[in-house]
Amino acid sequence: MDPYKYRPSSAFNTPFWTTNSGNPVWNNNSVLTVGNRGPILLEDYQFVEKIANFDRERIPERVVHARGASAKGFFEVTHDVSHLTCADFLRAPGVQTPVIVRFSTVIHERGSPETIRDPRGFATKFYTREGNFDLVGNNFPVFFIRDAMKFPDVIHAFKPNPKSNVQENWRILDYLSHHPESFNTFTWFYDDVGIPVNYRHMEGFGVHTYTLLNKAGKVLYVKFHWKPTCGVKSLLEEEAIRIGGTNHSHATQDLYDSIAAGNYPEWKLYFQTMDPDHEDNFDFDPLDTTKTWPEDILPLQPVGRLVLNKNIDNFFAENEMLAFSMHVVPGISYSNDKMLQGRIFAYADTQRHRLGPNYLQLPVNAPKCAHHNNHHDGFMNFMHRDEEVNYFPSRFDPVRHAERVPMSNAIINGRRERSVIEKENNFKEGGDRYRSWAPDRQERFIKRWVEALSDPRLTHEIRSIWISYLTQADRSLGQKVASRLNVRPSI
Ligand code: HEM
């Protein structure tokens, strides 16, 4: 028998109980004691192992997006985009790639209700033949801030007060009053879409500007958009309270039940591209995560469809241990978006902390294509290797470099500096969005602002700053909120 052929898995089972090392367990009911009523003996290995395993069942939850649900399926190319990218998994219509998707809320803990007003995560891992591609996005196309340095602060402000452990509006509005660029994302957060009805009826956005490279090495900026085929639906406050009051996992259950019933959720993927040579033609910076791109000038181009047709088999293995790390594949790359650049470091780093240095060996995270390098050992390394050469280069080792992949040859040249995005344009997009709504939707948005700004811990100064921002976005919006709060608008 080859002892290494068998991997630990429930498929390799005995019909009777054993310890983790396979020793038979003939009594799984009673601890080993001195006499019938005496103390437990330390030699009760079976008991110690069982409790020790139990004691360690939890791993750290994600520092953000702890609450989530995942499902598996496939991505299928429906339109020819081979002129835009040389990504192998996008090579031709009809090509399918297995995926796992994790939806999440952002702020609260692993077991928190799924009816809270919060952005939703929409993270997709494509298991391509060229390694994994992680598209880790949200259900809003924009983000509150535009510099990665600020991410821990914005999250701290949204997380519960470290003293009371309660999420408090005054902390959020205090912090973001220093960041007028956040207003645009508030037109999503305080809009009806701030509480999606479930995970199936929401859009997804890569948010960042990525780049596409084609075979000729031509680089385009790109934004990714997911559109659900069943439409976008949201919950109003009263419905959210009712649903959350009876089932705090309603979105997880909806996803699971829909797939189990054969009602497979589906999204269409679109590219929105921009030639980097045109990046100065706009009144905003295309690398700014607080902005979308105008769809009338840069239309959405259909690419493919995502179908989730298989539930996960085990929540811990395929949700808690699922780890996204912003991996890209040849043909898709990053841009200089300051937030995206920060995320490239953050994700792999947090996975090494949360799951350990070999997190990419876990079945859900491991690439489904052949892979090879000399990184080895470390905690929880369960790869069996028998090579004698673990260095490079070597005349004994035939492994060679992969074929060269196209990469941007743009010249990067500049002073070292810590600076802000110059074209701020903080209010135009949000103001336009507000003005595009029907009056009842505007009214609900106003009400949410009035309620948030009524937090008794907010100072007159912070309220006035917000009124000024709202007024700059739309004069009547600012006036309406100001009059209900009894604050005089001033710009
Ligand atoms: C510099 C900015 C950011 C930093 C430093 C950051 C950091 C993190 C960290 C540390 C996690 C936890 C990962 C884990 O433990 O598995 C996370 C999760 C996540 N982040 Fe970010 N993030 C940033 C911006 C964003 C943006 C702009 C988006 C949306 C486009 C986003 C979407 C997500 C999603 C969807 C998850 C959950 C992934 C999952 O389901 O496992 N993040 N982020």
Automatic annotation (TrEMBL):
Keywords: Heme, Hydrogen peroxide, Iron, Metal-binding, Oxidoreductase, Peroxidase. InterPro entries: Catalase, Catalase_AS, Catalase_clade1/3, Catalase_core, Catalase_haem_BS, Catalase_immune_responsive, Catalase_sf. Pfam families: Catalase (PF00199), Catalase-rel (PF06628). Its cofactor is heme. The keyword Magnesium does not apply. The keyword Transmembrane helix does not apply. It catalyses: 2 H2O2 = O2 + 2 H2O. Its EC number is 1.11.1.6. Residues 18-400 form the Catalase core domain. Coiled coil: none annotated. One of its GO terms (molecular function) is catalase activity. Transmembrane segments: none annotated. Belongs to the catalase family. Catalyzes the degradation of hydrogen peroxide (H(2)O(2)) generated by peroxisomal oxidases to water and oxygen, thereby protecting cells from the toxic effects of hydrogen peroxide. Homotetramer. This is Catalase.
